[in-house]
Amino acid sequence: MHDVIVVGGRCAGSPLAMLLARRGHRVLVLERAAFPRDTVSTHYVQPSGLVRLARWGLLEPLLASGCPPVTEAVWWFAEDLVVRGFAPPMEGVSMALAPRRTVLDALLADAARQAGAQVRERCSVRGLLRDASGRVRGVRYRDEHGREAEAHADLVVGADGRNSLVARETGAAEYHRRPPLTVVYYAYWRGLPPERRNRNEVFLAGDKQIGVIPTHDDAYLVQVARPHAFYPEYRSDVEGHYHRALEEAAPSLARELAGARRLERFRGTADLPNFYRRPYGPGWALVGDAGYHKDPLTGQGISDAWRDAELLADALDQVRGGTPREEAMAGYERARNAASEAVYEFTCEAAGFDLDPMTRRLVEVLASHQEDADRFFGMIAGTVSAGTFFSPENLLAMLGRLPAGSFTPVTTGPEETR
Ligand SMILES: Cc1cc2nc3c(=O)[nH]c(=O)nc-3n(C[C@H](O)[C@H](O)[C@H](O)COP(=O)(O)OP(=O)(O)OC[C@H]3O[C@@H](n4cnc5c(N)ncnc54)[C@H](O)[C@@H]3O)c2cc1C
Predict the structure, then answer these.
(1) DSSP 44
(2) What is the C-alpha radius of gyration for the chain, rounded to an integer number of angstroms?
(3) What does each C-alpha distance from 150 to 3, 147, 187, 390, 415 come to in angstroms?
(4) Where does residue 383 fall: left (phi above 0), alpha (psi -120 to 50 degrees), or beta otherwise?
(5) Pairing relation of β-strands 267-269 and 124-130?
(6) What is the pLDDT of residue 405?
(7) What is residue 354's predicted lDDT score, i.e. its pLDDT?
(8) pTM of whole model > 0.90?
(9) Residue 74: Cβ-neighbour burial (10 angstroms; 0-12, 13-18, 19+)
(10) Contact, 185 vs 268, CB < 8 A?
(11) The CATH fold of domain 182-269
């Protein structure tokens, strides 16, 4: 009998298992894959995520794996509209990283094991076990030898990704759902100019978004995102569509790639829904993408999974300390949502590829005011409160920094005209 069974052992599952095991919970992780194993995901990890890795003692080992620190962001909104800067530091961390998932996920699973969790790879969970009252009590799974087996626990956590079996079997309620907004394909390249080594560069041109991030082994991940409606066209000729979009949206980068070597096949997906799920019920909980998924365009998923693993571990610790389970788990859901909702809205906006006139004016401010630019990157990085950044006071203050006469605020009510 375990205290907690965690289904899935990547970004959400392994850190949750590690945190719980460090606090003395008996944890079993069942993971279908065998690490190191890649997954379809780009992997820009925000500074706020690295703050958590540092707290857990895992940032140093990740850096030692040879992953280059990212210390500069350059976002092209048009040829003459570029925002440069970097997020303000948080707890001494002033970088992002884009580690290969083969490296990162294996490191997280090892950390869970070292903390005392039992992490079993090649184990595929097939269903949930319930008692007579319907409360979840464990799982049915196929083990690493292909045998059918059962495991029992006080709590089963679905850390099993956006198509979560635990969410499906428990009927976890969804809310704030938006349809998929983008389709993304990416590939790894070697041979780009060395000045890109510590830079995250993004090109936004109409309905194309290009991202370049440096990763292990002198390689660069170059991704091309398009609106979801382009999926059939894109999928029918990934390589052609990818290069045409690059030539149109980022011709200088396209020229660099012409002299570089592609290292692996193209990967990508259009299975990118946006939703929250109620993350708990009798005998079960959800963490990571299983409980909250959004378009990857703003690179939040990994850092969010780590934040939510910490929040859930805290809630489960409270339950062990005597707090009623409903109260602790409702607190987990509230904290997750409060920490993510403003960036969720921003992500859905950004993934809509629509730079409306007001947003364009704000971008002009970012391009000409370094402090605003850094705070913008900090909002995405999680080192500046998104609620504060998007507050009407801050947005109005930013618009006020435009040259006189270039912006006329629209007045909509008596408060504004007084
Ligand atoms: C194209 C793309 C680009 C992205 N880019 C970024 C980015 O740049 N930065 C960022 O922060 N995030 C990015 N993300 C999001 C990021 O990949 C996810 O948010 C993150 O992986 C969530 O971690 P997770 O552990 O919740 O889920 P997952 O990484 O999906 O892991 C779930 C695990 O559960 C296992 N599993 C599933 N079902 C079972 C079962 N029945 N039994 C046993 N095991 C099971 C799977 O094998 C898997 O290993 C991107 C995602 C995509 C699709």
Answers:
(1) P
(2) 22
(3) 15, 10, 40, 48, 63
(4) alpha
(5) unpaired
(6) 62
(7) 84
(8) yes
(9) middle
(10) yes
(11) D-Amino Acid Oxidase; Chain A, domain 2 (3.30.9)
- Residues 290 and 163 sit within 8 Å (Cβ to Cβ): no
Describe the crossing of helices 357-368 and 392-399 by its angle, rounded to 10 degrees: 70
| Residue 14 Cβ contacting ligand 1 at under 6 Å | no
Tokens 């440096």, residue? Answer: 214
In CATH, the architecture of 2-39+100-178+274-346 is 3-Layer(bba) Sandwich (3.50)
**Cα of 4 from ligand 1 centre, angstroms:** 20
Q: For residue 414, is pLDDT > 80? A: no
Q: How far is the CA of 293 from the centre of ligand 1 (A)?
A: 10
Cβ proximity of 263 and 189 under 8 Å: yes
Calculate the average pLDDT of the chain.
95
Neighbours of 370 (CB within 10 A): 12
Q: 343 with 298: CB under 8 angstroms?
A: yes
Q: Are 127 and 143 in contact (CB under 8 A)?
A: no
In the chain, residues under CATH classification 3.50.50.60 are: 2-39+100-178+274-346
What helix, strand, coil percent values describe the chain, rounded to 5?
Answer: 40, 25, 35
Both tokens assigned to 35: 């690490």
> 3-class SS at 287?
coil
pLDDT tens track for 43-60: 999 999 999 999 999 999
- Can you tell me which residue has the tokens 């920490």? 339
**Pocket of ligand 1 contains residue 159 by CB under 6 Å:** yes
* Token duo for residue 102: 């083969």
Report the separation in Å between the CA atom of 58 and the middle of ligand 1, taken as the mean of its atom positions.
Answer: 19
251: enclosing H helix or E strand: helix 251-258
pLDDT tens for residues 95-120? 999 999 999 999 999 999 999 999 99
Three-state secondary structure of 388-411: HHCCHHHHHHHHCCCCCCCCCCCC
Does ligand 1 have an atom closer than 6 angstroms to the CB of 302? yes
158 Cβ below 6 A of ligand 1: no
Sequence ranges of the chain with CATH classification 3.30.9.100: 182-269
**Greatest C-alpha distance within the chain:** 74
Spatial contact of 46 and 300, defined as CB atoms under 8 Å apart: yes
pLDDT in tens, 241-266: 999 999 999 999 999 999 999 999 99
DSSP at 418: -
